[in-house]
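User: I'm putting together notes for a lab meeting next week and I want to include a structural view of one of the chains we've been expressing. I don't have a solved structure, so I'd like a prediction I can at least talk through. The sequence is below, exactly as it appears in our construct file.
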Amino acid sequence: MYCWDTDAHGEATVAIFNSVLRGPAAHIIDLGVTRLQAKTIDKLVVDVVDMISRVHRVDIVITHLHLDHFSLIPHVLDKLDQSIIGDVYIPGIPLEPLNIRAVVLEVLAATLAILDATMLYTTGKGLESILRRLRAAGKGIRLVYRGKKINIQGVFEAKVIWPPINLNSSPNDHSIKDYISKQLIAYHEQLMRCVKCLELDERFNILRRILEHSLSQEAYIKEHYESVINPEELLSELKKQNVNAEALSKCSDELRRGGIEKARTVISKALNNFSLAIEYYHDGDLAIVIPGDNDKRVLDYISKLESHRGSTSVIFMRGAHHGTYYGKYLNLFTPIVTWLSRPPQGCRYREDYEHNTLLKVLKANEFRKMMLLADYIHNNLVVAHLHAETNAVKKMFMILIQR
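Assistant: Thanks for the context. Below is the predicted structure for the 403-residue chain, given as structure tokens.
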């Protein structure tokens, strides 16, 4: 596991999985910053590419589509050999209830239109850069749901825990459906006004239409826990409508003034709760927990869905919403190392994470980069080596635990 202090409010995590028979593979689990500065982009992208330069396959897991989680993905993909590029995984859109499905479609399409325009204007690389690389590699964008299992080199497996296909699936508990619905409806109209203000209506309509089409194969989704967007199909649609340079300039100006940024921040509270929560296993043993940016209410609800399981030791857990959220789902795990990408003063639930963590809670601003190496042993003993680099000091921890 590698984690970086982005120094620009972001998330950057890379997991490398070693397989003797099939060679190493990597999952980039979010890579983005809010402040798109050339110095930060160049340094972080070069470092990430260097870490994954010797793997045989790289898949991209974007827990949710916000700048601080995916804005650097096109820059990394441009530097990778086409032969090792895998799929991109993003959260699925619940099929039911229909009112939530419709609003999530529009909120997601609007957010993508605004963020894509912002990335294009700021760095020259946006959604189309990602799509071109995926098309060349023959891969796709996969919208995944709870129940989806992703095989990694035959030995490792990722399991999607959230979001679900159907928010109506728990008839005795309507609280989470009502909670999320209230959030979405409250901010939907505000986001639509942003799209119109930035003159991104046409781009929004294209993205909404493609996302809606991806949900049309309901039988396939329910059987495979995923829907797939063909990069070629979306590229051909986007090429019909060039982003207006004047509108992009206006977008950037509005963002700097804070009006649209403030609106987007409010909207993000709704999209955060459709983040991917994903668990990684080695040979059936849980090793890594990524809860996304889901808030306490959703994490508490996920714990009900996972009530059949007891407390489990894991090697690595990432804090929810950069460490600012905590919930009962995270109480199910005792990690060796927990990573919080928000500086210590911003971690409201720091004590909860420290109480449950066996070895070390690491927070941004304490070091530049963290590397956690784990050696799996057949008798369920795990040796974990942790290297944390500060400005002047290198620390090493080693622990041998019985799981």
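A couple of points you could mention at the meeting. Residues 119 and 143 are 22 Å apart (CA to CA). Confidence is low (pLDDT under 50) at residues 376-383, 390-403.

User: Perfect, that's what I needed.
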